[in-house]
Amino acid sequence: MIDTEGGCAVWAFPAVPDSVRGARHAVRDAMRSWGLDGALADITELLVSELVTNSLRYACGPIGVRLVRPHPGAGAEAAGPPPPVPPGLLVEVSDPLPVVPTERNAGPDDEGGRGLQLVACSARRWGTRRGKSGKTVWFELAVPG
Q1: How far apart are CA 44 and CA 140, in angstroms?
Q2: With contact defined as beta carbons under 8 Å apart, do 60 and 96 qualify?
Q3: Pairing label, strands 89-95, 125-131
Q4: Cα separation of 100 and 128, whole Å?
Q5: pTM of the model
Q6: Quick check: helix, strand or coil at residue 3?
Q7: How many C-beta atoms lie closer than 10 Å to residue 105's C-beta?
């Protein structure tokens, strides 16, 4: 882990197949240390695994993974109603390839092509953004509370 400042965990993995397993374990450990285990940790681990696999398949170079957990009471105001959507767990996977991935419709016999479908179906919201040296695919998951 590169950084554990507050509610953020950041890692950089080499573009090698073992990085998928390393990312899964790192995410699981961070979630456990934050007290965010169970189903939320399971789906976070699965989606990170899918996105890191995509980065390995299509990009070369380091793969970044970043988790940002919501702080207790984040988004709540002293007066007025609570926000319509409470903050969620933000997850980002970055790689040096600037091409933004697109969700595709995998056929019933296809062995791949479902990673972004899983993200789209599981996340509260998700998206992509280009950076100076590649792109980031991000998603947000609701935190039970």
Answers
A1: 9
A2: yes
A3: unpaired
A4: 7
A5: 0.85
A6: strand
A7: 8
Residue 87 clears pLDDT 90, i.e. is over it: no
Helix runs in 17-133, H state only: 18-33, 39-58, 115-122
- From residue 84, alpha-carbon distances to 40, 47, 124 in Å are 21, 25, 13
Structure tokens at 31: 């979630």
Question: Which domains are delineated in the chain?
Answer: 8-70+85-102+112-141 (3.30.565.10)
Handedness of CA 36, 87, 125, 64 (dihedral sign): negative
How many angstroms separate the CA atoms of 131 and 91, rounded? 16
Q: How far is it, in rounded angstroms, from Cα 119 to Cα 127?
A: 10
Residue 19 has pLDDT above 90, yes or no: yes
Distance, CA of 23 to CA of 41 (rounded, Å): 13
